[in-house]
Design a protein that fits this description.
By secondary structure, the chain is an all-alpha fold. The chain has one domain. The chain has 4 helices and no strands.
């Protein structure tokens, strides 16, 4: 019982700390921060796969499978968003053609 409460406490503390840190980041640094967090999401995905690999009961396997799905979606989604944000800084081909004429 105490282990469960400690896990909930750590989860809430991590959520609060993450919110406070992210809210203080200037807008210009969001792209580099997103790239760095994608690295962390990859590590979380590896941890979820490891937990799924050592799961013994059906409940543990279901929770591990959901963790792997959510971790993979989070990592892939982070890379997609980062790519789209970086595309905003590239000059478009239509503007380049118009400027050359």
């Amino acid at each position: 019982m105490i282990e469960g409460l400690a896990a909930i406490y750590i989860f809430m503390l991590a959520g609060f700390t993450g919110y406070e840190i992210i809210s203080k980041v200037p807008v210009i640094l969001h792209t580099p921060l997103m790239s760095g967090s994608n690295f962390v999401h990859g590590i979380v995905l590896v941890g979820a796969m490891f937990a799924l690999g050592i799961a013994e009961t059906t409940t543990q396997q279901v929770i591990g499978f959901i963790a792997v799905l959510l971790g993979a979606g989070n990592a892939v989604g982070g890379y997609v968003v980062t790519e789209r944000m970086l595309e905003m800084f590239n000059p478009s081909k239509e503007k380049t053609k118009g400027e050359e004429s």
